[in-house]
Design brief:
184 residues, elongated, four-stranded antiparallel sheet
Length: 184
């Protein structure tokens, strides 16, 4: 028995990214067109190499942000524990064993309001100070309090399946549900 889910940053941000890239490239090219043209034609120009590297840096930055937006965060909860992979931040599966989990509590959370943004949020503001949150959508999050003091938060979309899995693999760990989010 295994719980699997995957999330990613809302792809609508690609529209914002496209507008940003278009605007930035237009400004760079319009300001440095003569220098860029001279650089590409292999004619010496004082600002040509600088304009080229600025242009290349902007394109690389936008490509990196696009890769992060399009990247999937995958979650597995099984007999092994809680596993997460979220490239480019977590390249290999990061597993937390059930023995490392001290407590689990459920709460409704919002990526912006509770964690300060989408994606992997470390040391967020608001009520969750020492959390490593994988925040992608508004909804119910499971907060796994670890023995070392850190809290790992992941969104849970199928609460009944999650509850059964925790009861099977970690019966000593009670799920704290102060807002009655679990199905009865």
């Amino acid at each position: 028995m295994e719980y699997r889910d995957q999330f990613r940053i809302p792809p609508v941000f690609l529209i914002v990214l496209g507008i940003s890239l278009t605007t930035t490239l237009t400004i760079i090219i319009s300001v440095g067109w003569a220098d860029l043209a001279a650089f590409f034609a292999s004619r010496p120009s004082e600002e040509g190499p600088t304009m080229f590297w600025v242009l290349l840096s902007v394109i690389a930055l936008e490509a990196g942000v696009t890769a992060m937006i399009m990247s999937w965060c995958r979650l597995r909860i099984s007999a092994r524990g809680i596993g997460v992979i979220y490239r480019p931040f977590v390249w290999r599966w990061k597993w937390r064993s059930w023995e490392a989990v001290q407590a689990i509590y459920l709460a409704k959370a919002s990526p912006i309001g509770d964690f300060g943004g989408w994606g992997l949020r470390i040391g967020s503001f608001g009520p969750y100070k020492r959390v490593h949150a994988y925040a992608f959508d508004e909804g119910t999050y499971a907060f796994f309090e670890l023995q070392e003091g850190r809290i790992v938060a992941v969104q849970i979309t199928r609460l009944q399946e999650f509850q059964a899995l925790v009861a099977t693999y970690a019966p000593a760990v009670q799920i704290q549900d102060p807002n009655s989010l679990l199905p009865v």
